[in-house]
């Protein structure tokens, strides 16, 4: 037996008696999972949209528990929500600027010769470990 004989063995796929049944089952399962995934994405989008709308308008109970909602109260609640979200954006802006300042400080440290030599030595160490590990596997 030579290499060509082994290549010929693996060149053609073996024929099974239940190949059409198996292919049909796999195709049905793939179609069902695709349909299920698409349906869950649509359902999640719908639920998320309703939740976001309820949070934006801030309807307190949606009629559950005897709460009455007026248009004026909903407008006042949504104004308070907008003010709160504006305050959150201010805090996020301050934190982002602080993070940017720390990144520029880290970037300044990266440009020093010490950082270059430390990173160079670490890269050489990783390369040496990789080479030593590959030599052990070949033994």
List key phrases describing it:
139 residues; 2 domains; mainly alpha; single chain
Radius of gyration: 32 Å
Helix and strand string, N-terminal first? HHHH
Distance from N terminus to C terminus (CA atoms, Å) equals 28 Å
Residues in helix, %? over 70%
Largest sheet: none
Would you identify the regions where 5 or more consecutive residues have pLDDT less than 50? none
Instruction: Describe the global form.
Output: flat
Number of strands: 0
- Treating each run of at least 4 consecutive H or I residues as one helix, how many helices? 4
Q: Tell me the strand percentage band.
A: under 5%
The secondary structure category is mainly alpha
> On the 0-100 scale, what is the average pLDDT?
78
Number of domains: 2
Structure, briefly:
The protein has about 140 residues and is mainly α. It contains four helices and no strands. The protein has two domains: about 1-55; about 70-139.
Notes on the structure:
By secondary structure, this protein is mainly α. The protein folds into two domains: 1-57; 70-139. It has helices spanning 3-11, 19-57, 71-110, 113-138. It is flat.
What's the structural blueprint in terms of helices and strands?
Blueprint: H1 3-11, H2 19-57, H3 71-110, H4 113-138
């Amino acid at each position: 037996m030579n290499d060509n004989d082994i290549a010929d063995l693996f060149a053609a796929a073996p024929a099974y008696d239940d190949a059409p049944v198996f292919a049909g089952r796999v195709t049905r399962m793939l179609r069902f999972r695709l349909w299920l995934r698409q349906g869950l994405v649509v359902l999640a989008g719908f639920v998320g949209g309703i939740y976001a709308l309820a949070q934006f308008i801030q309807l307190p109970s949606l009629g559950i528990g005897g709460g009455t909602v007026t248009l004026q109260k909903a407008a006042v609640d949504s104004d308070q929500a907008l003010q709160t979200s504006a305050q959150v954006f201010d805090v996020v802006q301050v934190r982002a600027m602080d993070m940017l300042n720390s990144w520029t400080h880290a970037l300044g440290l990266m440009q020093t010769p010490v950082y270059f030599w430390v990173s160079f030595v670490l890269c050489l160490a990783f390369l040496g470990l990789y080479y030593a590990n590959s030599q052990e596997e070949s033994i």
